[in-house]
Amino acid sequence: MIKTILFDVDGVLLSEEHYFDASALTVWEMLISENYLGLMPAKFKTDYTEAEIAAIRETVFKKDTVLELQKSRGLNANWDMIYLTFSYQLLHLLSQIKERESEKIKRWLSKEIDRDIILEIAPVLSQYKVAFDFGKFNEDFEKSSETKQGLMDYLNILAFEKLGVETTIFSGKGALWSVCEHASQEWYVGDEHIMASTGKPSVQLGKKGFLANETTTGPAQEMSKLFQYLIDKGIFIGIGTGRPALETIQPFKHLDWLKYFQDNHIITADEVASAELEVPKGVSLSKPNPFTYVRALRGKEHSALVCINEKLPIENGNDVLIVGDSLADLLAAKEMGCHFAAVLTGLSGQEARSDFEEHDAEYILEHVLDVKDLIERI
């Protein structure tokens, strides 16, 4: 009997589309803006139309095939996807100047790449005719079997293959990852919320943000009825999401969903980031690590370390259902020994069904609203 249901947010309750739009704009900005690599500064602006955003996303992520590959390998966080996509293009660009600039490249890859290093690389690249190749991402990563955080380690291997430089700087959440994160937050939350989101001002002002225009995966009123139905059935509900707190609480407040959830059982990327300060550097607690869902189950009244050290599979795992849209959610649920229901409203839509079947997802639902029928039959 299911006593607790833990929901992912992106692709389950709220649409992922604006996140992926912001992700594409971030990669594009970091490649072309004079604030970063500056390869096409005249073409950068902060007020793209919907059609322009769609065109940029189609270009950067090759009609979303780059995102789909990353998600199929268990990667769940948009910041990680941005970091992988931009870092790969950086390696590809550097490979085009390696014959003449090998010493500089060795120096750049010998330590963490922050924005100062990016601004040092920019004028050197501008001296040459270099070109992006967004399609090569899948071509190169399909040669590997890396999953999850191993995808970042694979960037180090590609650095050696393409540039002849041995490095470890691409593993984990280093300086370049942080640059990508901050740039993406500018696009997503906009000027109004950037300080609250990151504690730092915008590098580039003029971004309105997508936060105020969140859309649900289905009729919001029907989803509210689902939450109330579950509560009336005596089922406890919680949230385990890779979204930051601001980007979770604000839409939930707007939708009047907060009344269905206890704050202590809404776990976001903020709690994950805080918990990662208590583990060795480079250890990721993001999904598919089960930490997000373990803490959503146990609650914030239990310390991060208690949840990190939770014995897995958990006791009474049969009482818990996790509802997610990604392989990362499924892997976390399996490690916890919980039931898992996949929904087909994420990035890949119906095409995700085969992946879920291949990884033995217990239940595959068209939509989160189908959870009601699932509960009535199990």
Average of the residue pLDDT scores? 95
- What is the element string, with H for helices and E for strands? EHHHHHHHHHHEHEHHHEHEHEH
Radius of gyration of CA atoms, rounded to a whole number: 21 Å
Estimated helix fraction = 40-55%
Q: Approximately how much beta-strand content do the residues carry? A: 5-15%
Shape: globular
Provide the low-confidence segments as ranges. Answer: none
Report the count of strand segments.
6
Structure classification = alpha/beta
Polypeptide structure, described:
This protein has 378 residues and is α/β, with parallel strands linked by helices. It has 2 domains: 4-14 and 216-377, Rossmann fold, CATH 3.40.50; 17-198, no CATH class. The protein is 50% helix and 6% strand. Strands 3-2-1-4-5-6 form a 6-stranded parallel beta sheet. The longest helix has 24 residues, at 175-198. It is globular and about 70 Å long. The termini are close together. The mean pLDDT is 95.
How are the secondary structure elements laid out?
Elements: E1 4-7, H1 17-32, H2 50-60, H3 65-72, H4 78-95, H5 98-108, H6 115-125, H7 136-141, H8 150-163, H9 175-198, H10 220-232, E2 236-240, H11 245-255, E3 266-267, H12 269-276, H13 291-298, H14 304-308, E4 320-324, H15 327-336, E5 339-343, H16 352-358, E6 363-365, H17 371-377
Parallel strand pairs: 1-2, 1-4, 2-3, 4-5, 5-6
